[in-house]
Amino acid sequence: MSQRTKIKALLESEQTDISVIVKGWVRTFRNNQFIALNDGSTNNNIQIVVDFENTDAALLKRITTGAAISVTGTLIASLGKGQKVEVKAKEIEILGDSDPEKYPLQPKKHSLEFLREIAHLRFRTNTFGAIFRVRNSLAFAVHQFFQERGFVYLHTPIITASDAEGAGETFHVTNFDIANPPKTENGEIDYKEDFFGKATNLTVSGQLEGELGAMALSDIYTFGPTFRAENSNTTRHLAEFWMIEPEVAFNDLDDNMDLAEDMLKYVIKYALDKNADDIEFLTQRLLEEEKQKPQQERSEMSLLEKLQFCLDNNFERLTYTEAIEILKESTPNKKKKFQYPVEGWGTDLQSEHERYLVEKHFKKPVILTDYPKEIKAFYMRQNDDGKTVRAMDILFPGIGEIVGGSQREERLEKLEQRMDEMGIPKDELWWYLDTRRFGACPHAGFGLGFERLVLFVTGMGNIRDVIPFPRYPKNAEF
Ligand code: 4AD
Ligand code: MG
Fold it and tell me: Which residues line ligand 1 (CB under 6 A)?
């Protein structure tokens, strides 16, 4: 009996009157008698009952919020309300003190903004414990989903010389002395002298390399960090985020939509089953938060209902053109309630438009397809109308775009022509074009923004709260 038992296991224990060792961090200590102890294995604390009359006063003083302790004692049926079992302490050892005057996390409600400033400690709150356990389950479920279907997990490079999306939002990677880089005769920075012998950047997407893998392995997926230097200070954007990108040979856009919908439902269901307590806690948290809002701004469904609803309903599938018609005729558009009025065909949808379609019009997840080619990346398959491409975006309630994908242009001539039109350098992407030269075939894939998925499943409102240490403009703390 020298091993500790995790609190989750103790709370579920069928046996009582057994000796146990439990370790964790003190949440509260009341009446010199009751310690609420948490070790992160569950949102629930275990109650430790201290025999204060027979415990050294100096030791009692060191049982403070935030301290790490080890308790040896007996697991007994609890006499008090609120818990089935508790631990009657025989011996308490302080592993790490925590000065209550200085410890930033007090046993009270802190704002999410404040907790972001102490992100190194926020894991110790109920909310963030729940979020990161759910995040973990979702990541595991993503792998399980693809592994069960025979996909190969492919590690695409983090450092690359290409900008897969062609949006010019890359972070440069260099080992030049940036104050004094080598110059060419024309006075330009001489990247030939740089570490890789060319200008390089952090990847914005593993898709292009993913396509190379799919052209041999058939079904691949990536799951890794991606980086975008877009200066958008929003609740939906990060400069460093994790993306899942499956790519499947011989799939068309319909297969691609089926795969994405199946995957989203699978991972949401996995989290619902695996993290029932955490999601119940997050559901209550959201209800509390929404009480602060005026009635008409509160969601019609609770978090739990929203997740269940997403599992029970087919996602609505329609084209961009059909969506524009709906938006043009919509009440908010006619009453000039949209910040960006929907007038003609061809412009990108704003998040207010996406949210109207999902939350007001269809009231369920929506997949929009066949966008105008002008607002989409060069690699998407061109439709016969000469105007649209085989793109798909999945829009989720409260989130907007959660998945972006397409069937790829596998016809060399069409692809080259589009690259020329969009100013994408063909010589640099010679290896990508080779797949269209040697055994090209129809294929399709998509990218799921992992943090947007975690946002949806946890019901949180800001993407900075669902990744341990968020990276955004003017912030790289921790
Ligand atoms: O729509 P995006 O830009 O598509 C791609 O990168 C494609 N190469 C994917 C593919 O077809 N393989 O990004 C995909 C998803 C978005 O739908 C969104 O969920 C997420 O990535 N995303 C972001 N998430 C957080 N912060 C950002 N700055 C994001 N930009 C995109
Ligand atoms: Mg997109």
Answer: 164-165, 205, 207, 228, 230, 237-238, 241, 243, 245, 401-406, 445-447, 449, 451-452
User: Which residue from 452, 457, 465 has its CB within 8 A of the most atoms of ligand 1, so it is best to mutate?
Assistant: 452
* Residue 102 pLDDT class (50, 70, 90 cuts): very high
CA of 472 to the centre of ligand 2 (A): 18
When the candidates are 3.40.309.10, 3.90.226.10, 3.10.290.10, 2.40.50.140, the CATH number that belongs to 7-107 is 2.40.50.140
Q: What is the 3 state secondary structure string of 269-297?
A: HHHHHHCHHHHHHHHHHHHHHHCCCCHHH
Q: Considering only the C-alpha atoms of the chain, give the largest distance between any 2 of them, rounded to a whole number of Å.
A: 85
Residue 378 CA, ligand 2 centroid: distance in Å: 13
Q: Which CATH number fits domain 124-169+204-465: 1.10.10.60, 3.30.450.40, 3.30.930.10, 2.60.120.200?
A: 3.30.930.10
Please count the other Cβ atoms lying within 10 Å of the Cβ belonging to residue 187: 7
Strand duo 85-96 + 46-49: pairing: parallel
Tokens of 210: 């993913």
Residue 389 CA to ligand 1 center (angstroms) comes to 17
The ligand minimizing its distance to the Cα of 209 is 1
Distance of CA 112 to the CA centre of its chain: 17
Is the alpha carbon torsion for 188, 192, 197, 198 positive or negative? positive
Contact by Cβ (8 Å): 260, 403: yes
The pTM for the full model equals 0.97
What are the domain boundaries of the chain? 7-107, 124-169+204-465
* Residue 473 CA, ligand 2 centroid: distance in Å: 20
Q: Which of 162, 217, 191 is nearest to 445 (CA)?
A: 217
- pLDDT tens figures, 135-186: 999 999 999 999 999 999 999 999 999 888 888 799 999 999 999 999 999 9
Ligand 1 closest atom vs CA 243: 21
* Residues 376-397 pLDDT 10s: 999 999 999 999 999 999 999 9
Measured in whole angstroms, the distance separating CA 188 from the mean position of its chain's CA atoms is: 39
